[in-house]
Amino acid sequence: APNINGANVKAHLTQLQSIASANGGNRAHGRPGYLASVNWVKSKLDAAGFTTRVQSFTYGGATGYNLIADYPGGDANNVVMLGGHLDSVTSGPGINDNGTGSASILEVALQMKATNFKPTKHVRFGWWGAEELGLRGSRAYVNSLSSTEKSRIKAYLNFDMTGSPNPGYFVYDGTEHKPVIPGSVDLQKRLEAGFASFGVPTELTLVNGRSDHAAFTAAGIATGGTFTGAEKIKTTAQAQKWGGTAGQAFDRCYHRSCDTMSNINDTALDRNADVIAWTLWATAA
Ligand code: PHE
Ligand code: ZN
Ligand code: ZN
Ligand code: ZN
To answer: Where along the sequence do coiled-coil regions lie (predicted)?
Structure first.
């Protein structure tokens, strides 16, 4: 897998920050900054040869949008999906939550093309709308699939907050869904192996209904993901392991107006993007 250049991911974040600044300071569902974000990501993927589609849905009296992008080729009956939410809360630009996951999977998608990756499996990306209002976009997407289309998706990897300023390195616990979906444990182990290959210690976290993978697990699809922490406080043991500041939140600007370009840890952002690429190459090759 290619080592992802963190500066490229950061440049995408700068674009999302500019979009928010030009649209009232946020990229929230039903606000102009959201659709502008979708159109900007779409333009990058179209230029790289992806097949893109914008799926609309209605929530709370406003139109929401999911962006779906298919990488050409691979076995259409064996689909690996990566996704993250592209909307922010209304109070700020949402650069860590979730510009980071959105920008990281965008850069990984662009590197598939740049390195001429020819995976055996078919690879699809999703940027979800209205996550902040209750996983609305990802649920609309999964609900729109026939049972045959659902059964073709063998794995869904979710990235929501991957550059927290006081970062932890969390992998979604593959046993959180009951009954356990065996493939989720495999994805957990693969993500852990990815971090281990870069010498980064990890912990498991139970995300449950707090992000978009939940729409996929509810359909019996194997899921996994990474996370650098939100409002919870970093412990002394965690600060010894990962650095940063014990007794402080992983992200003190979570859901606030200060979730800007200054709210990013560059090392966490780059390491997570590297692990995303490592895991995609290992899963889809
Ligand atoms: N989904 C949460 C949000 O967008 C953030 C989160 C991600 C929380 C992963 C826990 C685990 O606000
Ligand atoms: Zn890197
Ligand atoms: Zn959020
Ligand atoms: Zn989020």
So the answer is: none
